[in-house]
Structures are given as C-alpha cells and as structure tokens.
Amino acid sequence: MELTQSAKLADVLYDVRGPALTRAHELEQAGHRILKLNIGNPAPFGFEAPPELLEDMIANLPIAQGYSDSKGLLSARRAIVQYAEQKSLPSVDVDDVYLGNGVSELIVMAMQALLDNGDEVLVPAPDYPLWTAAVSLSGGRAVHYRCDESNDWAPDLDHLRSLVTPRTKAIVVINPNNPTGAVYDRPVLEGIAEIARENGLLLCSDEIYDKILYDDAVHVSTAAVAPDVLCLTFNGLSKAYRVAGFRSGWMIVSGPKAHARSYIEGLDLLANMRLCANVPSQHVIQAALGGKQSIRDLVIPTGRLYEQTMRTWELLNAMPGVSCVRPRGALYCFPRLDPEVHRVQDDYQLILDLLEQEQVLVVQGTGFNWPSPDHFRIVTLPRVEDLENALGRIGSFLTRRLAD
Ligand code: PLP
C-alpha cells in the first residue's frame, strides 16, 4: 500500500523553503552559483553573533548535558521576565515563560493547545506563513485580515473586525512584520486589542524583530497595550542575536489567566511532552539579554543592515512598475509589481523563471498568503555589492519579460 502523507497536511504550506529551494539546490549541484535571498538567516551572510553568546555556550556545555525543566532554565526565564518588564508587559512571572526550540516550536504548541477542528484564527495577510501553517496543522482555519499597503502596511482594523465569528479564538499580530517591514504604531495595536477584548479572543504577538528597527521606529509590545487581555508574546535569539541555528526562542503568557487555566494546562502538557528546549542554547539567553545590544550598531544609518535594507528599497523603487513601502523594521523588502505593467498571473512561476534565468532566489508573495500574484519578498542580509548584483539581475529579468 502506498504511504501517503496525512490529510492534516492538506492545507499546510511553507514556501520559504518550498520546491523553488529544491530547484535552487539542483542548479547548485549542476555548478551554478545561486544568490539565495529567500531565508532570513543572518549568520551565512557574515553577521556574527555577539562573542559573549559563544563564550557562554562553550563555558556551560559541561553542565548542559541533561534535560532541563520543561519550561526552561530559571536563569534564562528570569532574564526574560526582566526583559518583559522593560517592555511594559503586565505582571509576568517566571512561570509565565516557556522556552522553545526557536519561536517556531512555540507557535505550533500554542496553536495545538488552542484549536479544535474548525476553530478560526485571524492571521495577517501577508503573514509569516508558519502561522497559517500551524493553524491548519492544528485543525483550525486561518482567516486572513488585510494589511493595507497604501497605509504603510498597517492592519485594516475594519476588515479585521468584520471577520470575527463565533468560531474565532485568536488574533495573530506580527510586529515588526515579516514580510512587509511594517512597525505598528500604538493606536493600531490599541485597535487590535480592543477587538480582542470585545470578543474574548487570545492575542498572539510575534515580536521576533523587536530590536531590528530603522529610522524613528519604536516598538511597542501588544501585551503592553492590552494588560486586560490574555496575550502570548513570542521572541527569541534567531534574528537580533544572529544565532538562528541555536534554535532559541521564548513565549510569555500575560494578562488575566483565571479563565484560561485549561488552556495553560494544555500548554504545560505540550511543553512536558517535548521534554525541553535545547539546553546549551538556553544558557546563552541571559548573556544575550543582559549584554551589549550590538544589533543597534547594525541598524543605525551607518550600520550594515540599515544600508543594505535601504539600498534594496531604493533600487526596487527605481525599477519600472515596481514600488516598495520603506521598511521600518526586520530584514526584508516586499515590493509590488504593478499588475497593469507586469501582468503576473502566477507569481510562483515568476520566481521560478527568475531563478532559472538569473540564478536569484526570492519568495513569491502568495507564499506569504498574500491573495494576488503581484508581490515577492527579498531578504536584505547580503552585502550591498551582492544585493546590487541581485537587483540588477531582477531588473533585467523584469525588463526582458516586459519586452516579450
Ligand atoms: N516569526 C517570524 C515572524 C519569523 O520571521 C521567523 C523566522 O523567520 C520565526 C518566527 C521563526 O523564528 P525561530 O528561528 O525562533 O524559530
């Protein structure tokens, strides 16, 4: 009998590492050099971790051989509580903190513990697609609320409100946003919190880019504007501390918990079932949060990440029929290809053609649950010379396509 994948996977998609990446690997094996601008993984682009993280990992290896508590080491959770206080999260205790193998594991856990078949979660469009995938895998239905490109990609609160049904369980906020680079102002977060409050919904706020901010952007935690709403805040070391390979993330439960005892017991059960997060990586959380925040040197106007992101943004906007909202945070640009000019019918085919013809790999906008085939996402981690090279090739590809 043929072994088929479970029906649970029918709606589960993760195109950041999808079939186009498999094709890129094939091309590499055939001797091509591919510029991979598809994954937000800082280390391969020469963004080194703060040295104290490596020193702490090495120094603690001898005492990191056993499992830890399921929720994680107390020293790490204490450091996270202190960070939560700095970000004005309401009354967080060490018991409210769960460490995970990256935020990814915790997102799946949070959805698995929450959803019955057919329950709905309001997820932004575009989104970081793990959220939609985790909802589907858990038997739920991701219902996408629009973010408005003409309003710096802020969530459309009227649309969000209109989507609430009796089956809605939670609202997902991704701020700073992947893929758009938007950073939400306080009134937007207050509006989202109000919708959650009125409808008794859980708020899930993915804040993994909260320290990667450009220009005058200021990050406000969703939980800080919603002290009376149950909120899960997600963060970790993968981006601002450049150690995505350490798989180190955390989740903080805040707000009123009396009505959510059963859900929290579900989270505890799932945390127990996976035993614990990678222990050597847990040892570096305290050093990361307590040490020099070297990410700041990278995001100031003379910093490498700032220069690369803004150069990418500029070059995209200089292409005919391409426009891009200036990112205020994170590691990406999410340009629009004017449908009147570029007439893209299938954005997956577009990025495959780009890969074959120009050896540049980006991710199609529909891979982020954007409903129309008129965007793609580009990672701004490579050196400026490499980005200029990649954007030159994207420009030639689009120009050639227009001439066809
Ligand atoms: N959330 C967002 C918005 C992301 O962009 C990413 C990774 O790209 C993750 C979560 C996953 O992070 P982690 O490495 O902690 O699993």
UniProtKB/TrEMBL annotation:
CDD domains reported for this sequence: AAT_like
Pfam annotation, one family: Aminotran_1_2
MF terms in GO: transaminase activity
EC number: 2.6.1.2
UniProt domain Aminotransferase class I/classII large: residue ranges: 35-394
Keywords from the UniProt entry: Aminotransferase, Pyridoxal phosphate, Transferase
Cofactor(s) of this protein: pyridoxal 5'-phosphate
Keyword Transferase: yes
InterPro entries linked: Ala_Aminotransferase, Aminotransferase_I/II_large, PyrdxlP-dep_Trfase, PyrdxlP-dep_Trfase_major, PyrdxlP-dep_Trfase_small
Similarity section: Belongs to the class-I pyridoxal-phosphate-dependent aminotransferase family.
Protein name: alanine transaminase
